[in-house]
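hey can u check if this looks right to u? its 344 residues, i copy pasted from the old doc so theres a chance i mangled smth
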Amino acid sequence: MDLVLLLGAHRTGSTALERVLARNAEALGAAGLTFWPQAELRRDRAFNEAFALTRRAVRNPAARAALEGLSGQLGARWQAAAQAMRGVLLSEENMLGHMAANLRHGDFYPSVAARLRAYAALLPAPPRRIGLGIRSYAEYWVSAYRYSLPRHDLAEFSVLRGALAAQRRGWCDLVTDIAAVFPEAELLVWPQEALAAELPAIAARLIGYPPEAPALAAPTRRINAAPHAGDAALIHALRRDRPGLKGADLAAALAPLRTADAPATRQPDQDFTDEQYRGFARRYAEDLDALAEGHAGARLIARPGDEAPPDGSGGEQKVPARRGTARMAAPAPEPRPGDEREAR
């Protein structure tokens, strides 16, 4: 049985891809395919903390026992699935790291290699295929900020943006690190900006759905969209009087403060300068070109359309389960070592 990993990244449409798989579970099952969504995996505290537990396991028997228990559970589930299935997709974007840590420290998934090595030791089989969504840097950072702020205490975006724009680690570095940990896996990459047209096709290509099988249906509404742009200023104002305000209490405090006519997109307090936008655009274009040429053995299976879609995908579509625009990848260059610092 084949193992497929969907590693996110955050805010690039991985939840929309999961929704395609869930919506088409019957068709996938008929093809011998199933998936383990991240919501299920995160119910196990040991899975959520696998990286930290791995770092403690040498000297901590409890951590070692937790990892052994998790490995046993995954193995048993794998063996049960293997009785009827030929492929399993495991989805968990937090294997790469955490958005809030990226924002706080002005870094871009610095511990990918170390984190993936920790999870590799727990997986029931080496992955045959790995999927990674990417996104324009400016849009990634703004979306990550809006999504993370209600859940975490973060500084105002104007305080963070200089460090975010100055750091040089990016998508190609993630691809290099992933390929170094899983050199035998096929590594598929797609831009979030292509999902509006390519969502079912990318899901099918990733999980190994037969192209001759019935077409997959896309979701019917936006999925996991970032919170309203106007919320950020309100959250910071509320937390000045009520530090640490989160969850249901924050939602209740926000509701009467929102205005129906507040702008839904770019806001001065959550924006980059024009020069920073131009720099991000150049870097992203360079990444797409490098990936199209097979950077680290990856295959870019879609290209951005003329317009970037919103955070979610809307409108039901029936799209043939085709392979997109995959190219044969060039041999992978020698990977550089990954950053071993722990994401916090």
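Strands lie at 2-6, 33-36, 87-91, 129-134, 186-191, 216-217, 299-300, 318-319.
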